[in-house]
Design goal:
With 578 residues, the chain is α+β, with helices and mostly antiparallel strands. 56% of the residues lie in helices and 7% in strands. It is built from 23 helices and seven strands. Strands 1, 2, 3, 4, 5, 6 and 7 form a seven-stranded antiparallel sheet that branches.
Length: 578
């Protein structure tokens, strides 16, 4: 009779009554050391069944989250009924990885213990099918491969199961055809054992098993055929992976296992040159991606050459040391070749590091140069004429307009990847008198970040549509704002109340990042307004604003502008009284 939720609830009630906690202690009491392993397993199954159907499970650190993350790591008394229950719970909640992973590990313990329960096979099949519909996200691919390995273990001996070979590359179909050319009784144990390894490092138990199943000639020939097919396979650009790859994920595991199995084959069966070819193919990349086409296969080929260590294997490792450009693999080869090899590997590693640094710098310069040139072309086509009409002159991407009492600046910043963000504002030369303490700023060469008043907009990628919209914004919003900044009354509203600055773009393509902002000296708006009034000879306004600046407490940062306040108060005293 199948295990039910009521059965588990009764188990937990009895357990809580035994330790004197009561059902009110659920689920925090699950960590009580007085519970037996069976009772902890029952608690885990209950939590798994009531899982919220969402990717991230429970809130991190909650009782349920702790139970699902920690209990499966313990030695729990899994049996066929509990494994079926866990898998059913995972399926009911969308086969999310945080549930499916523990359920599959429980099922694996049961299968390794010798179970052949048809109910377990049926639920595993449904689980693998649902995982196949999810795709390769959130651990689903890893769980799908695990489920298929378990299914192959449950099949009766003598039935050749090739379900572990996956579509999605140019190796899978030739591998199936090669396997079907041999006696199933001779190659079925080999295929089953290769599929069992997965991502794991080969444990001693698996190595003993693989040596046993390599006894028949057909099995040894099949390993060689699969490796030759992998070495000759063309790269694949399909839906299984979002990049060019040599092997689909499940097939990558199978080929890697076959490469490891070649440790116990003679060099006339699997030559050193074939293993070297696999190492080179696996370590290769397809730009612009920097990922290896089959890195784990490449690593396994190097390990197999080092394990066999015949003269031809050692010679091939020496050639690979010069041919490969992955620093991790070069170091692995150096370690396999002994002290002399390690010294050669260190020299080769330094060469690779230097060459890659040069290539990165060259690529960055070339890429940025091309992108910048395209941005400049688009600005010229869509924006620059508008700025010329408005009276600006340019120096590169910085545009300046010189008025009687100010310099208006528009700077089109680009970070090298095609993103354009305008920065605009005003420099008031009167705030930088020759005899004053303020930093000298040249009006003809002023840039955005040395302006007295600066507004920064977020921009967008330099498309024609975006830059046309920016030209309209310059003409009807930014230009009127800059012209109005010559009026001290308008400027007071901007600095004191934050009104008058062009609004955020309602298309959300141009969104305000910061602004307006003042330079560090003068720091408070009152000082800036008083200084401008003083420079204009407006004694009344200057006195009002400078008194307001002087009333500001001696807080953090005041020392930065106190000398400037003193200067303008002296200038104010020199103004004629009317």
């Amino acid at each position: 009779m199948a295990l039910s939720r009521d059965d588990l609830v009764h188990e937990m009630e009895a357990a809580f009554e035994r330790i004197g906690v009561g059902w009110a202690g659920w689920p925090s009491a699950v960590t009580d050391p007085r519970l037996t392993a069976r009772e902890r397993l029952a608690a885990l199954l209950l939590v798994m069944q009531v899982s919220p159907a969402r990717v991230n499970g429970w809130p991190y650190g909650s009782d349920e989250d702790v139970i699902v993350r920690t209990l499966p790591r313990r030695s729990l008394p899994w049996d066929s009924d509990t494994a079926v229950f866990a898998l059913e719970a995972a399926i009911a909640n969308g086969c999310m990885h945080y549930l499916t992973g523990p359920a599959l590990r429980g099922a694996e313990k049961v299968i390794d213990a010798g179970s052949t329960d048809p109910a377990l096979h049926a639920v595993l099949s449904r689980c693998a099918e649902q995982l196949g519909e999810i795709g390769d996200i959130w651990g689903a691919d890893q769980d799908r491969r695990h489920a298929r390995r378990l299914l192959s273990k449950l099949l009766p001996p003598g039935l050749l199961d090739l379900s572990a070979i996956r579509d999605g590359d140019n190796w899978g179909e030739p591998a199936r055809l090669a396997a079907r050319q041999h006696d199933p009784d001779e190659v079925e144990p080999l295929v089953r054992t290769l599929a069992e390894l997965g991502h794991r490092s080969p444990p001693q138990s698996w190595q003993k098993k693989i040596v046993a199943v390599l006894g028949p000639d057909s099995a040894r020939v099949l390993v060689a055929e699969w490796l030759r097919s992998a070495a000759a396979a063309q790269e694949f650009d399909g839906a299984v992976a979002p990049f060019v790859h040599l092997l689909a994920p499940s097939n990558d595991d199978l080929v890697r296992a076959a490469v490891i199995a070649a440790r116990w084959l003679r060099t006339d069966e699997v030559s050193a040159e074939l293993l070297g070819a696999l190492a080179r193919r696996g370590a290769a990349t397809r730009p612009p991606s920097t990922d290896s086409l089959a890195h784990r296969v490449s690593t396994a080929a190097i390990d197999t050459l080092a394990f066999r260590a015949t003269s031809s294997d050692t010679a091939e490792l020496g050639r690979l040391l010069e041919d490969l450009s992955r620093r991790d693999l070069v170091k692995k080869i150096g370690a396999a070749l002994g002290p002399d090899g390690a010294a050669r590997a260190a020299i080769r590693d330094a060469e690779i590091k230097r060459d890659k640094a040069i290539a990165v710098r060259r690529k960055g310069i070339e890429t940025r140069s091309v992108v910048d040139a395209e941005v400049d072309r688009l600005l010229e086509a869509h924006v620059n004429d508008t700025l010329r009409e408005l009276g600006f002159v340019n120096s590169g991407r910085v545009w300046r307009r010189f008025a009687e009492s100010r310099v208006d600046v528009v700077d089109f910043y680009s970070n090298g990847d095609g993103w354009v963000a305008p920065r605009y504002g005003v420099l008031y030369p009167a705030l930088h008198p020759k005899d004053g303490p303020a930093e000298r700023v040249g009006a003809k060469g002023v840039t955005a970040f040395r302006l007295d008043l600066l507004v920064i907009d977020f921009g967008g990628h330099g498309s024609a549509w975006f830059l046309d919209r920016m030209a309209q914004r310059l003409r009807y919003e930014i230009d009127p704002f800059l012209r109005s900044c010559g009026d001290r009354g308008f400027l007071a509203e901007v600095l004191i109340n934050g009104t008058g600055v062009p609004a955020d773009d309602d298309t959300a393509i141009v969104t305000r990042f910061t602004g307006p902002r003042l330079r560090r000296k003068p720091f408070p708006p009152e000082l800036a307004l008083g200084a401008l009034a003083c420079a204009a000879g407006d004694r009344v306004s200057a006195a009002w604003w400078l008194d307001a600046a002087g009333a500001i407490g001696a807080g953090t940062g005041r020392q930065r502008w106190q000398d400037e306040l003193d200067y303008w108060q002296r200038r104010l005293a020199e103004l004629p009284r009317r």
